[in-house]
Design brief:
Elements lengths: L2 H17 L7 H12 L3 H10 L4 H4 L10 H7 L3 H10 L2 H7 L1 H7 L6 H12 L2
Length: about 130
């Protein structure tokens, strides 16, 4: 009799692991987010995240814009307002681990105000 509840619990736990998907943005939503970053439109990016009840830190790694992360696209597009918003939504440890700071310095963005924001955020390490 004790075996049945244990097996049932195992099936429920295994089903929960298989069924619960990782939080990812779909292609159309990701494309919209990329467009908002290119346009330096922080308000629309914030609105789409709010409308879909998404946290940027949960989907950031799943959103790629022409092979670049959202922060790298912000650098390339000179989208400092959106870049700062993105940086504030991510943990400092993630910014440090992403390599975006080294990438920005190596690609000629040393004078960008966004780089200063990233360095300050990474220094906080939260």
């Amino acid at each position: 009799m004790k075996l049945l509840p244990a097996v049932l619990l195992g099936v429920v736990v295994a089903g929960a692991i298989v069924v619960s998907p990782e939080a990812k943005a779909d292609d159309q939503l990701a494309a919209s987010m990329c467009d908002y970053v290119k346009a330096d439109d922080k308000n629309r990016l914030r609105k789409v995240l709010s409308d879909y009840r998404l946290r940027l830190r949960n989907i950031y790694d799943g959103v790629i814009c022409n092979g670049d992360s959202l922060l790298r696209l912000a650098f390339k597009s000179n989208a400092n307002d959106v870049g700062e918003f993105i940086a504030k939504q991510l943990p400092g440890a993630h910014i440090t681990a992403s390599g975006d700071i080294a990438w920005a310095e190596a690609n000629g963005f040393s004078a960008s105000p966004l780089l200063a924001v990233l360095k300050a955020r990474a220094g906080g390490g939260d």
